[in-house]
Structures are given as C-alpha cells and as structure tokens.
Amino acid sequence: MAKQPMLKFVTVNRDMPEKRDATVRSKDFDEIYAEFAAAKAAEQASRCSQCGVPYCQNHCPLHNNIPDWLNLTATGRLEEAYQVSQATNTFPEICGRICPQDRLCEGNCVIEQSGHETVTIGAVEKYITDTAWENGWVKPITPAQERPESVGIIGAGPGGLAAADMLRRAGVQVTVYDRYDRAGGLLTYGIPGFKLEKDVVMRRNDQLAQAGVNFVMNCEIGKDVTFAELREKHDAIIVATGVYKSRDLGGPGAGAKGIVKAIDYLTASNRVANFGDTVAEYESGELNAAGKKVVVIGGGDTAMDCVRTAIRQGAESVKCLYRRDRANMPGSQRETKNAEEEGVVFEWLTAPKGFKGDTVEAVIVDKMRLGAPDASGRQSPEVIEGSEYDEPADLVIKALGFEPEELPTLWDQPELEVTRWGTIKAEFTTGRTAMPGVYAVGDIVRGASLVVWAIRDGRDCAEALLSDLNAKAAVAAE
Ligand SMILES: Cc1cc2nc3c(=O)[nH]c(=O)nc-3n(C[C@H](O)[C@H](O)[C@H](O)COP(=O)(O)OP(=O)(O)OC[C@H]3O[C@@H](n4cnc5c(N)ncnc54)[C@H](O)[C@@H]3O)c2cc1C
Ligand code: SF4
C-alpha cells in the first residue's frame, strides 16, 4: 500500500521559512523571510489534514483550492500544484507574501483550531509560484483570438491588473491608465520591499505588457484626460483607482513642519530604496527618518510599514502611538512582532492631542483607557484626564487610514453614484455601476481593504464584463 503522504501534523511541527535576524534585516529593504527548500515545503505541506470541509479555502477570498495544491506539493508534483494555484489567483506569489493569513486561510485552518498550529499556507503558495517562475512554467499570455472590443482601466493596482490579465487572455484590447510612472499601485509604491520585493511586481507588469496590454503611465484621469473622453474611446471602463485621501489630525500645532503623511513617506522610501530614484523631499530630509526621533501615529498595517521603514532609514528612535491596546489594534500581530524585534517601541492606549514647535519638537500625548463598547461592540477609547505628557519627536508620520477622493467632482461626473463614505456604488460580484459600460473594483468600492480582495474583484469584474460584451456582440450579430 502507498504511504500516506498527508496528515503529518501529528508528528511534524509547524515551521516557517527562515526569518533573517532582526539586527541584519533592519539594515536593508530586502524581504525578511528566506524561501523554503524543496524538502521543507513538501514536509510542511504534508501537515495538511485534507479536511472534507476546508475552512482555509472558505476563508480565502479567492477560494483557492488549498488542500489540493498542498497535496501536490507534498508529493513533489510542483508544476501541477502551480497549475491548480494559478487557476484561481492571478498573483499567487504576491498573496503568499502579503496576505494577512492569520485572519484569512491560516487563521481558519482546522489543525490550528485543534491546537496543532496552522499549515504554513502562505509560505507554500509563495514557494510554488516562485518555483514556477524559476522553471519557466509561468507562460506568456497568448490570447487564442483577438476581439475588437477595447476596455480602458483606470488604475494599475492589483484590482485593475487582475482584470487586465483576464480580459487580455480573452483577446480583449486593454489599455491601463495610471498617474504613477510605474504600474502596481500600492504593490509598487505603498507596501515596502521588506514585505514584497519589487522585482516580484515588475515581472508581472512586464508579463502583461508583453501580452499586449497597453500601459499609459503618468496620465491622471480628470487632469490629463477627461473621464468623458475615455468613455468615448473605449467600449467599457473599469475604475480601479484605490483610496488615497489621507485621514488627517487636528489639534494645536497640527500644521507644523516635520508632520508628514504616511503615503508620501512610504512612496518616497520605495522610490529611493527599491528603484534608486532621486526624490527631492527625501534628499532634503523632509521624508527621511535618518538620525531622527520618529513618532508614527496609527495602529494599522500602514503604521507598521512606516515604523519598520524608519528603522531601516537609521532613525535614532521609533515610537508608535495607538489609542487602543494591542489586542484591539487593526494591524497584523505578525507585523507588530516583526517591528518589535527590529526595535520599534509601541505606546498602547495613547493619542496625540497637539504638537509643539514650528518645526515639530514634541507630540502632546493623552493616555487613554478602553471604555464602554460602541454599537459595533468595540470598546471606545477614552482620555484619562490629567495624563498628558510630551513625546519628543522631530518627524511625525500620520498613518490614520485612507478615504476615497471625490471622483464625481474631480471627474465632473455627478451621475457616478457614490456611497455615503465616498466609495463608488458597484455590485460586489460584478463591479457593474449604474452608469452603462462603467465598472469599478478594489479599494474604490470596498474602502481601504486588501490586495487579495482587489484581485478577487478584478477577476469577477472581468468575467461579468466579458459576459456583457458577449451579450452585446450577440445582439449586434442578430
Ligand atoms: C502602506 C500600505 C500597506 C499595505 N499592506 C498590505 C498588505 O500587507 N497586505 C494586503 O493585502 N494589503 C495591504 N494594503 C492594502 C492594499 O495595498 C490595497 O487594498 C490594494 O492595493 C488595493 O488595490 P486597488 O487596485 O484597489 O488600488 P491601488 O493599489 O491603490 O491602485 C490604484 C491605482 O490607481 C491609480 N490612480 C488613482 N487615481 C487615478 C487617476 N485619477 N488617474 C489615473 N490613475 C489613478 C493610482 O496611482 C494607483 O496606481 C496596504 C496598503 C497600504 C497603504
Ligand atoms: S490568497 Fe491569501 S488568503 Fe488565499 S490562500 Fe493565499 S495567502 Fe491564504
């Protein structure tokens, strides 16, 4: 009888790929985890219990067929594992690196629930696709036939690119417009290299360009080209612009020099550290933490990326202020631990009240406690009267989250319907809006969310759009 290759969780412990030592990794912007060796990937995949109802798959936004590709990895059938993995995910090697697996697939793994620690799903997913790239199994996109219809996609982030990939595979003429000079959206300029090295993103951009996707970069819709002009030019439009309006802070001194937005800070760092660009505000020190006492305000993933970037830039000290406690922070626990290992100090239950200095010298901080739960059941932070103190700072980074820009006004399209949060009103499963031929996907529909959800939206929207194009073509043929 053949040996049972799976269910090894009883005898094999969970093991992640090697994590580089904090003192070494905090000096560069390279990813912090090494790749699994082949035998290790097979061993870790073999821990899967192959459950009849795979909760990991149900909790993956893409419903990846995780048990099957774990089984194929455990038995050394890697090329088939890659085929199964890429059938549901446009960028598996990116999700394997940056999905918050503890909240998605791995957090719901059945062996985790039974106390044996989850299968390392993300690390295996990354390993499978990195191996596929190395071995030439990731083939160029070659449409079987060309279609006459053209689709314009506004935004080259994961949502727009996932849609571009599927539409181009079906032979549609695709043009992607973006106001940045490089494609990838937040994969390129938001998320730092130590979580996602940029060649991983650039090779996907190249693959799409080689497939005939036309990229029009440095082109801002609403400024360089109007939305109306774009609608004239294409049979359909997909809006995939993300959310970029930073939430702001008030209080005395909030306009002082040295208080900057997280997105500006991270974009400058990504440009300089990963692409070797020259950025004037980095050169001048405005967006450079070297030698400074840095205070980052916020408790989400953006704040985690800022504190860890500041450490790598050579800050004198890095503190993170968050108004709730560790258990109630929105950011990933894994990233918080990584940040602590690298030397970041977290000041839980603290909130800024104001700032001192024309060029910032200190943050005036209130200590907080958690009060009664609000309507959502979350405890509201309350100020502890008389607890105020000064936190010395010469660079303050605001990482309080993002909201949508006012697209109907900016694009002079009052009929583009938005929700009360300013996100575009679109069907989640198709991206269709009330405007004929206009679709929307990703953060601009969901609000600030995750890469894996943007990919899901892009894929769903491409499928709906193809079916709409087919229906139109059928009517025209009649
Ligand atoms: C700092 C940071 C770290 C994050 N870390 C993670 C993480 O670890 N894991 C995770 O899953 N998610 C993470 N996220 C969230 C994730 O990056 C987003 O949910 C995802 O990128 C959304 O994809 P999108 O395609 O909707 O938009 P985006 O990636 O934002 O792309 C939108 C694109 O549209 C372009 N654009 C906008 N307006 C216009 C216009 N008028 N004309 C032309 N182009 C325009 C922009 O330049 C951009 O390239 C992070 C977000 C941030 C800010
Ligand atoms: S896409 Fe994300 S949630 Fe889905 S299996 Fe991969 S890492 Fe897990």
What does this structure look like?
With 478 residues, the protein is of the alpha/beta class. Helices cover 36% and strands 15% of the residues. It has 19 helices and 16 strands. A five-stranded parallel beta sheet has the order 3-2-1-4-16, sandwiched between helices. Helix 9 (158-169) links the parallel strand 1 (150-154) and strand 2 (173-177). Helix 9 runs parallel beside helix 19. The radius of gyration is 23 Å and the shape is globular. The relative contact order is 0.12. The mean pLDDT is 95. Flavin-adenine dinucleotide is lined by residues 98-99, 154-160, 177-180, 185-186, 190-191, 195, 220-222, 240-242, 266, 301-302, 305, 442-443, 449-452, 454.
Strand-helix topology:
Blueprint (H helix, E strand, L loop, with lengths): L21 H4 L12 H8 L9 H5 L6 H9 L3 H11 L3 H7 L11 H4 L7 H14 L15 E5 L3 H12 L3 E5 L8 H4 L8 H13 L3 E3 L10 H7 L2 E4 L5 E2 L12 E3 H14 L4 H4 L9 E5 L3 H12 L4 E6 L10 H9 L3 E4 L1 E7 L5 E12 L5 E5 L5 E4 L2 E4 L3 E2 L3 H4 L27 E3 L2 H4 L4 H27 L1
Parallel strand pairs: 1-2, 1-4, 2-3, 4-16, 6-14, 7-8, 7-14, 8-9
Antiparallel strand pairs: 5-15, 10-11, 11-12, 11-13
